[in-house]
Amino acid sequence: MAQDERPPSFERFDAELARFRERRRRRAARSGRKRARSAYSSGLQAGIEIFAGLLGGLALGYALDAWTGLRPLFLVLFLILGGAAGLLNAYRELRRMDGTPGERRRDGQQGNGASGGRDGTG
Amino acid sequence: MANPLEQFEIHPIVPILVGGVDVSFTNASLWMAVAVASAYGFVMLGTRHHALVPGRLQSMVELAYEFVAGMVRENAGKEAMRYFPWIFTLFMLVFFGNTLGIIPGAFTFTSHIIVTFTLAIGVFIGTTAVGIYLHGLRFFTFFVPPGAPKLMLPLLVPIEILSYCFRPISLSIRLFVNMMAGHTMLKIFVGFAIALGILLGLLPFSVTVALMGFEIVVAFLQAYIFTVLTCLYLHDTIHLH
Fold first, then answer.
1. Short-list A52, A100, A105, CA closest to B236
2. Which residues partner with B22 through β-bridges?
3. Which of B49, B97, B130, B229 has the most CB atoms at less than 10 Å from its CB?
């Protein structure tokens, strides 16, 4: 056939590519297994955040106590404040991973565009 | 069974003592030098030809560039591209440090908290300096949460300041814990394989193979997370609220 000898048009290629991407996106959305693993890992990350807060508060309180000689005062104070700071960091991190806009990121660009947006670069 | 923590010991290769301070060239220094040299060599060799249609090595370098550039643009914004060289260097150093550590017998310098903490403190000082440079004293309004009642500020501001100051701690702990745990686990399973002999040892050995693959993923993922968090911190200091 004469028609087949002509090179396939760019439109047809684009349409095929779009269809392929759509299929891949749907397949990725369907598989819930990846999501479960990510929940586990984001829980771990948030845990590290809380642990770091407590550790930092402990170290800071201990150092201030040793410096001022007001022994348990700063230790108690900074352990509580550090725990709160750690929780705040963990909360922000989880919000960020969720893709819901965190308090600090109101300008409309969220991280979850990463899966679709970078397709063309590789 | 060999001690699984033995791999993290630092041995001086060339002992140097300057004024009572031990600045020996150790196995950690050696592998840091190897990581820097291989990252530098990778980029330099890859871009040697400036080919329009890249070869294998050049496309790998381009891939790395595109990957980090996309990450910076997406997480820190377009304005942050000014700091791209810094982020790219950080990513390459951590990535090569993690990846080279997988080679049996190599030393993983990212499994030491002092190394990761130094990197994180560098990020902390760098992002804070960028914030103060861009915004001047207005940078410190970052610690006042918008829309909070005035009465709560004496409590909220210290918490915000602490949470900002504890970022390098969590950043360094995350990388160090992941690298150290993975390498310890590998060593333990290899120890099982050797202790159980050829027939029974096949089981823990197959676990080791799986873990090795897992470690490669972790090596990349942790370098990625370290860099993404750096970008997010940079985003915070560039845009404030």
1. A105
2. B17
3. B97
Q: Is the ipTM of this complex over 0.90?
A: no
Residue type for position A68: T
Q: Tell me the domain boundaries of chain A.
A: 52-101
Domain count along chain B = 1
φ, ψ of residue B178 in degrees (nearest 5): -60, -45
Interface test with B, best of A34, A38, A45, A48 (most B CBs within 10 A): A48
- Chain A residues with beta carbon closer than 8 angstroms to that of B75: 111
pLDDT confidence of residue A105:
42
Nearest chain B CA: its distance from A28 CA (Å):
19
* B177 within domain boundaries: yes
Positive or negative torsion for Cα B216, B221, B226, B228: positive
For the stretch B15-18, contacts whose Cβ atoms lie closer than 8 Å and that sit 24 or more positions apart, written own/partner, are none
**What is the model's pLDDT at position A118?**
35
The pTM of this model reads 0.81
- Chunked into runs of 10 residues, chain B (241 residues) has average pLDDT values of 83 87 90 96 91 89 94 91 95 96 92 95 95 92 88 92 94 93 92 89 92 94 93 91 69
CA distances from A72 to A58, A62, A64, B154 (A): 11, 8, 10, 21
Asked whether residue A36 carries a pLDDT value surpassing 60, the answer given is: no
With the CA atoms of B44, B121, A54 and B236 taken in that order, what torsion angle do they form, in degrees rounded to the nearest 10?
A: -80
Q: Is residue B1 part of a domain?
A: no
B115 lies in which domain range? Answer: 6-239
Cβ(A85)–Cβ(A56) below 8 Å: yes
Nearest residue to B101 via CA among B183, B40, B174, B36:
B183
